Amino acid sequence: xxxxxxxxxxFFCFLLLSASFMDTAMADSDRCTRPCRKxxxxxxxxxxxxxxxxxxxxxxxxxxxxxxxxxxxCYSHVHTIRGRAKCP
Length: 88
Prior knowledge:
Layout: H1 2-39, H2 46-60, H3 73-76
Helix pairs in contact: 1-2
Keywords: Signal
Family: Belongs to the GASA family.
InterPro entries: GASA (IPR003854)
């Protein structure tokens, strides 16, 4: 009986932790979508721009406005393996 209660308690703890993780992941997605959409609005390859913008936004926790990258220093320091800027 005690093992069942212990397993049930562990299961509920797991559910609570996974739910809180999902909330933060969704919040990151919501927080990045609008600024990335604005930043990529004039890009020729919008899908690619949005993909990499979201990756950079989730890593850096910011997206610079306009064309400069001054307001988000992390954003300009993310590079590909070949040394090119990864973030649009």
